[in-house]
Amino acid sequence: MTLHLARLRFALDPLIAEAKRRRRRRRMLVAVAVVILAAGAAAATVALRGSDRSRPTVVLACGPSLGAIRAGLLPTVAHPLSCAKQMTLARASASLGVQLVLPQTTLVRTSNLGRVWAVVSHRAGRKTGATVAATFPAQGVIIEYERPAPSSGSAAFFRRLAKGIPASKVVSLKGTPALVIRQNSDMNRNNFGSVIFRLGGSEVRVMAHRDQATLEALALSILNRATASRNSA
Predict the structure, then answer these.
(1) Distance between CA atoms of residues 1 and 77, nearest Å
(2) Where are the domains of the chain?
(3) CB contact set of 94 (below 8 Å; sequence gap of 6+)
(4) Contact 171/153 with Cβ under 8 angstroms?
(5) What's the sign of the alpha-carbon dihedral 145, 149, 154, 157?
(6) Contact yes or no for 196/204 (Cβ under 8 A)
(7) 127 bridge partner residues
(8) What is the pTM of this model?
(9) Of the candidates 212, 226, 223, the residue with the CA atom closest to the CA atom of residue 176
(10) Cβ neighbours of residue 142 under 8 Å, at least 6 residues apart?
(11) DSSP letter at 101?
(12) Cβ atoms within 10 A of the Cβ of 17, count?
């Protein structure tokens, strides 16, 4: 009997080890997703990629390691993107390939715009995408555009993503699905509040230490101004 139990335990050891490994991997992916979506480190520090037909995958690029992220070294309004270059709004729009539509509300106006940062990615000498971060320092707001968008931006995709992110939910911004993440809800309790949605071929991320209503108002302003610009063209 003792020999039988010893053999059984020996046979189960690899299965137990594999289960522990998978559990650690899931925790790491969730932690990285929270940092990406709640703190806006997406394109430069860690890139989240996924679609409605596949699970999100994580691609590490330049920027701090996961250990540094856990230590609280998150993006700030002063330094929203790793490996980014400061440039004019016009040049950043050219790098992105579309005009950056910024919010115009009682909180944030175009005249409040501070530094603008951009990261352009290349592969085999060809441009493959870009991320731009427009900052409003006095208001503590960051508006990020990533193009091409890393997902379809569908409600179904955001709902799947929300299952692994604390204090997040999917809302509709007058018909546009958006993922909302509450501020100070990540592992470090200091992440930006975020509203993430798709606008054309870009993913837009509105980030600030503000409540949901304020963030949604900023996002709606962007959507409304983009619609007005298309209608007047």
Answers:
(1) 65
(2) 2-232
(3) none
(4) no
(5) negative
(6) yes
(7) 122
(8) 0.73
(9) 223
(10) 40, 75, 77, 80, 133, 134, 135, 136, 192, 205, 206, 207, 208
(11) P
(12) 10
Amino acid residing at 83: C
| 192, two tokens | 């930006």
pLDDT in tens, the chain (233 residues): 444 334 333 444 554 455 555 555 555 444 445 444 434 433 333 334 444 444 443 333 454 444 444 444 567 899 898 888 999 999 999 999 999 999 999 999 999 999 999 999 888 888 899 999 999 999 999 999 999 999 999 999 999 999 988 899 999 999 999 999 999 988 878 889 999 999 999 999 999 999 999 999 999 999 999 999 888 86
Tokens of 211: 């409540």
Token reading at 41: 């480190």
pLDDT in tens, 147-168: 999 999 999 999 999 998 889 9
- Using CA atoms, how far apart are residues 162 and 156, in angstroms rounded to an integer? 10
HSE, side-chain direction, 13 A CA sphere, residue 77: 16
Token readout for 137 is 């320092």
